[in-house]
């Protein structure tokens, strides 16, 4: 049975086609830097050379079409007909209080659309993915797997905001978190590498990409996470502001005469590393600009590193200690510099990484320095595999 998984990130679309008999990857691929110069599509049929197309990819709709076309490409494709695909699994960032994956039907689509306001960079693109698959694979079952589901285990004091209680109940305002599938996957993998059950470990997982979040995991469950009601909260991100004083919102709206929609756009698409640097949302561009002495790129980077450090410190306190620290996602997997900067001067918490081992990109490796109390790992995430398994389980 072949299962296709589509993962619409804020700056990327990732896909994997699995043969579920042995969980083999038939092809995988990635469109990255969507909407910025030098966007690219990488398609990797299993066991073959990769095909790279560098082209302007303006939005997720075009990106999704390119991904689907790559699968049946006459030279590089791995299937002749889309009918060979038995089911499609989709990553949905905001699933509200959905506790687990569900089959796509009209009411699921309506729920995802209603949550679009809470994940403006994600739920819309994911819906475009569902629609594209409905068009080319009519009648094929589709499943949605929610980023928010893993975080449904948080204790009430971690997910409740100190606003008027009745208003929070009325509008379902609470911390939902995101990247849950990824945090869960890398935490399980870290436990395997350590050789202990996850529920016996205190773990902090750092998913650092265009969207970034950090999660504290205790007793095998999400205990707290940096994203909130929406994926705008927490760390400084590619284009998102992360945590700011909430008073700035009304202040700026008043001063600049902004509507709620315009303010939302400012915080989601024009802030973060892009907003501070004035240069790019992509950390590769930021690292290159810093090397050339660009002061605002340096500032954006330092803010990012500083907020990541604060969450690791706070979550170590919440967990009453730390056994395992994990780095994953675009930046977390590929940037030795980011990991080095975040872990620097954290030895009082037991975190110390080895400079030579840390020179790793996109591969699983323990990077703990000799004698450090906390074991630190780089673990490439695999949201697609988790989604494929959940899709199969629902069929
Ligand atoms: N080799 C690299 N060095 C530094 N940063 C990288 C590297 N590869 C990817 N990144 C960064 O990772 C981010 C994209 O992360 P990713 O998790 O793929 O994105 P998304 O949030 O869209 O899912 C970009 O900011 C990119 O600059
Ligand atoms: C929730 C989120 O920000 O996802 P991504 O990092 O894939 O954009
Ligand atoms: Mg992502």
Explained architecture:
The model has no long low-confidence stretch (mean pLDDT 97). The radius of gyration is 20 Å and the shape is globular. Strand 2 and strand 3 (24-32) form a beta hairpin. The chain has helices spanning 60-72, 106-114, 123-136, 156-159, 165-171, 180-194, 247-256, 260-269, 272-277, 283-291, 295-319, 329-334, 336-343, 383-394; strands at 2-8, 13-19, 24-32, 40-45, 51-54, 85-92, 102-103, 142-146, 203-208, 212-218, 221-225, 324-328, 365-366, 375-378. The protein has two domains: 2-146, ATPase, nucleotide binding domain (Nucleotidyltransferase, domain 5, 2-Layer Sandwich), CATH 3.30.420; 197-378, Nucleotidyltransferase, domain 5 (2-Layer Sandwich), CATH 3.30.420. With 395 residues, the protein is of the alpha/beta class. An eight-stranded mixed β-sheet has the order 5-4-3-2-1-6-8-7, with helices on both faces. Strands 11-10-9-12-14-13 form a six-stranded mixed β-sheet, sandwiched between helices. The chain binds adenosine-5'-diphosphate, acetylphosphate (UVW) and magnesium ion. Acetylphosphate binds next to loops. Mg(2+) binds at residues 7, 383. This is Acetate kinase. Belongs to the acetokinase family. It comes from Neomoorella humiferrea. Homodimer.
């Amino acid at each position: 049975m072949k299962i296709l998984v589509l993962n619409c990130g804020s700056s990327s679309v990732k896909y994997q086609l699995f043969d579920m008999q042995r969980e083999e990857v038939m092809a995988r691929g990635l469109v990255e830097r969507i909407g910025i110069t030098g966007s690219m599509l990488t398609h990797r049929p299993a066991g073959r050379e990769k095909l790279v197309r560098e082209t302007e990819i303006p939005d997720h709709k075009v990106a999704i079409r390119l991904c689907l076309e790559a699968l049946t490409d006459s030279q590089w494709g791995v299937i002749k007909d889309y009918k060979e695909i038995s089911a499609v699994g989709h990553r949905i960032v905001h699933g509200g209080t959905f506790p687990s994956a569900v089959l796509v039907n009209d009411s699921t689509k309506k729920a995802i659309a209603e949550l679009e306001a809470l994940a403006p960079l994600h739920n819309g693109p994911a819906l475009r993915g569902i629609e594209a698959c409905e068009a080319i694979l009519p009648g094929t079952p589709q499943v949605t797997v929610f980023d928010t589901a893993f975080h449904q285990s948080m204790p009430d004091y971690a997910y409740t905001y100190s606003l008027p209680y009745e208003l929070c109940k009325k509008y379902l305002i609470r911390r939902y978190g995101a990247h849950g599938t990824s945090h869960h996957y890398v935490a399980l993998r870290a436990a395997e590498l350590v050789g202990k059950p996850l529920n016996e470990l205190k773990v902090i997982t750092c998913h650092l990409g265009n969207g970034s979040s950090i999660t504290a995991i205790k007793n095998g469950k999400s205990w707290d996470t940096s994203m909130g009601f929406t994926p705008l909260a927490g760390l400084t991100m590619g284009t998102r502001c992360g945590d700011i004083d909430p008073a700035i919102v009304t202040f700026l709206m008043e001063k600049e005469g902004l509507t709620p929609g315009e303010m939302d756009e400012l915080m989601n698409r024009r802030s973060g590393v892009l907003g501070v640097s004035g240069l790019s949302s992509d950390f590769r561009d930021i690292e290159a600009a810093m090397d050339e002495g660009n002061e605002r790129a340096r500032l954006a980077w330092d803010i990012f590193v500083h907020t990541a450090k604060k969450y690791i410190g706070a979550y170590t306190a919440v967990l009453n200690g730390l056994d395992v620290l994990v780095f994953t996602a675009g930046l977390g997997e590929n940037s030795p510099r980011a990991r080095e900067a975040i872990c620097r001067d954290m030895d009082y918490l037991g975190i110390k990484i080895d400079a030579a081992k840390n020179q790793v990109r996109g591969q699983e490796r323990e990077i703990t320095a000799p004698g450090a109390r906390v074991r630190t790992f780089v673990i490439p995430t695999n949201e697609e595999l988790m989604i494929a398994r959940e899709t199969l389980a629902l069929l």
